[in-house]
Design a protein that fits this description.
Blueprint lengths: L10 E3 L35 E9 L5 E5 L3 E6 L6 E3 L16 E6 L10 E9 L8 E4 L13 E6 L2 E13 L16 E6 L5 E6 L6 E5 L4 E4 L2 E6 L1 E4 L4 E6 H7 L3 E5 L3 E6 L2 E6 L5 E4 L2 E4 L5 E3 L2 E5 H7 L2 E3 L3
Parallel strand pairs: 4-7, 5-7, 10-12, 13-25
Antiparallel strand pairs: 1-23, 2-3, 2-6, 3-4, 6-7, 8-11, 9-10, 11-12, 13-14, 14-15, 16-17, 17-24, 18-19, 19-20, 21-22, 23-24
């Protein structure tokens, strides 16, 4: 995604961006710096990889799968990894898994260079049908909905897109919530079954791991859960990187978080009285209850407004950041 060129002046850039500025404050006047012009882009998310074959349990609770294409691969199982019936879409009991069972295991795109290679499971699928096994996918952007009267929609996923019927059955994994195709939002991970025409008619949505989803349009307008926010972004270039920045307070409050200024800590973001993180001038990391959270970019003060890189801010607020 290319962001349009934005010129800004009167910027105070934190030490993380290798510039010296006065201490952060909600009403601080920014220092004068030369104009900055920049472009920024966000890469496409890599697609998951499907492994198929018989499995053998390992002593460390991982599985060794004899994949029909890649040979043996060690697959580590995160806690509570979904295990789904490939025919019915219902949950399966991983404790019932036996050596020699044939599974489809979807894993992340990264594998070690060891022999055998090792990787982490995203979802396990058992009781595979002879045909029409489900496809695992991560939704990377909002659905493209046709004009009124249409019967299907195109949903972008990592590595491609799916055509989903508006009448598709959508069910959640392990809950009784009522879902529809409108709940297939950016950041959702799904299993999708398609008919003979290649169009998805059944979906199981796996547990959603985010508080919401956010993006910014080429003119810097920010969107949260599809709704435009009363904020504007800045595209800023340094010697190290080019990034889109968003106002910390406006974006965080729109997402349901509280933002305060605390002497010695800087901007403090909390929810329901629990502090999530704080960030202050001169630091390349946000402070969280679990320790430091390194930032990909530094903070910026412009006109008394504190900005953070959009991807850093989304990560700290547990928002899925997608391409617009």
């Amino acid at each position: 995604m290319k962001y349009s060129i934005l010129k800004t002046a009167s910027l105070a850039v934190c030490a993380a961006l290798l510039l010296s500025v006065p201490a952060f404050a909600a009403d601080a006047a920014p220092a004068e710096t030369p104009e900055i012009t920049a472009e920024a882009s966000v890469p496409d998310a890599p697609a998951a990889v499907g492994l198929n074959g018989a499995v053998t349990k390992q002593e460390d609770s991982s599985l060794l799968i004899a994949d029909t294409v890649r040979g043996e691969v060690v697959v580590h199982l995160p806690e509570n990894v979904p295990y789904v019936d490939g025919t019915t879409g219902q949950p399966l009991d991983i404790k019932q898994l036996k050596d020699g069972d044939t599974l489809q295991i979807w894993v992340g795109p990264a594998m070690t260079m060891s022999l055998p290679p090792q990787t982490n499971a995203e979802v396990l699928i058992g009781n595979l049908p002879a045909e029409n096994a489900p496809k695992y996918a991560e939704i990377t952007a909002p659905a493209v909905v046709p004009a009124p009267g249409g019967t299907e929609r195109r949903i972008p996923i990592a590595g491609g897109e799916l055509t989903v019927l508006d009448t598709a059955e959508v069910t959640p994994y392990l809950t009784k919530n009522i879902l529809t195709v409108n709940d297939l939002v950016p950041g959702a991970k799904i299993l999708a079954w398609s008919g003979a025409d290649g169009k998805v008619n059944k979906v199981v949505r796996l547990p959603y791991g985010y508080s919401g989803y956010m993006t910014a349009s080429p003119d810097g307008a920010a969107l949260l859960d599809g709704e435009e926010l009363p904020v504007k972004g800045r595209v800023i270039e340094t010697e190290e990187m080019t990034r889109l920045y968003l106002p910390l307070r406006a974006a965080a409050e729109a997402a349901g978080f509280d933002v305060d200024w605390v002497s010695g800590k800087g901007a403090v973001v909390s929810q329901y009285g629990t502090e999530l993180f704080s960030v202050k001038n001169g630091s390349g990391a946000a402070q969280t209850p679990d320790g430091e959270h390194d930032l990909l970019g530094g903070c910026v003060i412009d006109g008394g407004v504190t900005y953070l890189p959009a991807d850093d801010l989304a990560d700290l607020l547990n928002l899925y950041f997608y391409q617009s």
